[in-house]
Input
Amino acid sequence: MTARANPFFGREPRPHLEGDFAREELALAHRNSALPLEALAYDVTPLGLHYTLSHFDLPRLDAAGFRLAVGGRVARTLSLTLDEIRRLPARTLRVTLECAGNGRGLMSPRYPSMPWLHEGVGTAEWTGTPLRHALEQAGVAADASEIAFLGADRGFDRGVEHDYGRSLKLADASSDDVLLAYAMNGAPLAPQHGSPLRLLVPGWYGMASVKWLTRIEALDRPFDGFQQVVGYRYRKFAGDPGVPITFAKPKSLMAPPGIPDWFTRRRLVEQGEVTLAGRAWSGAGIAIVRVDVGVDGAWREAALEPQRDRFAWQGWRFEWRAIPGEHELAVRATDATGATQPLEPEWNTNGMGNNAVQRVQVTVR
Output
C-alpha cells in the first residue's frame, strides 16, 4: 500500500499519558475481556472468564472449509484441513496465559493502548497437536532457522498495515509443548480465542500464541513482521532498538477478600481470621518456590501449593488476623531461578511485562 492510500501514514506517535484514561483506551477495554479476580478461585478458568486480547477485528472462519497453509523453506507445501490436523497425535496441556501488556494501566506515564490493570491472565486446558508433526510432514529445509505464524486478523498499528504474525526459532517451534490448538477446556475454540485453530506457546507471554492461524512459513532469515520487530519489545526510550519479549515474568495475584464497593472496588472485611488466597506463576515452565503476603508493609510467607502442571499457575493461601482500620495488602512471588517481583513497576515505553506486586486496599470493621 502506498503512503497516499494509507489513511494512517505519517501520523504522530501516540504520546504517553498520565491521569485519566483516554476515550480510545476505554474503547479497547470494552472490546477485550478481563479476568474478574474473584475467578482466581478456579484452578482452570471457565471459558467465559478467561482474558482475551485481539489486535484487529475477530475473523469469521468456517471450520468446514478451513485450510492451514505450510510453506516457505520446506520440501512439500501443505494445505491441511481441520480434520487432518485433528487426526495427528493430540496433547492436552494446562497453561496459564498472560498478556504482555498486563499491568500497563498501572505505569506512569503509560503508553496509550489496552489499559490492563491486573486482569489480563487466565488458565485453560488446551488440546491440539504438537506443531512439530506438521513441520515433519512438510519437511523443513536444513537452512531454515525460524518458523513464522500468520493469523487471519489484519489491520493497522502505528501506521503499518499487516496480518498479525509472530515467529519462533526452529528449536523452540519443534518442542512437543508448542501446539496447534483446536480446543479449550474440552470445547472447540470460541471466536475470540482463535477459532478454529491457533498456536499455543506455553511459558511465553500471550502475544506468541497467534490466533486464527492460517499460515506457517519456514524461513532462512529472521522474521520481519511488525509485531515481531516493532510491537513486542522492551524499550527504555524512543529510538531504543530494545530486546524481544519472550517468557512471562514471575507474578502473583490475590483474589479480592471480603465484599466490594460497587464503584471503587475497595474491599470491606470483617475483623478476625481472614483467609487470603490467590495464584502465582512464572514463564518457561519455571516453578514458583515462595509467595509472601504483605500487610501494611510487613511481609510473611504464605502456604504455597506445589507445581502440578509445568505451565500453569500455583495456588497459595495465607491466614490474616484482621484488626479494625485501613490496611494495604500485597503479594509477591519468587520463582526457582531466584527472580522475584519488584515492589514498583519497571517502566518501559510500551508498558510491557509489568510484574510489580499487586496492592489491595482494605477496610476492616
About this structure: Helices lie at 23-31, 82-86, 131-138, 170-173, 226-231. Residues 23-31 form the longest helix (9 residues). Residues 64 and 83 are 9 Å apart (CA to CA).
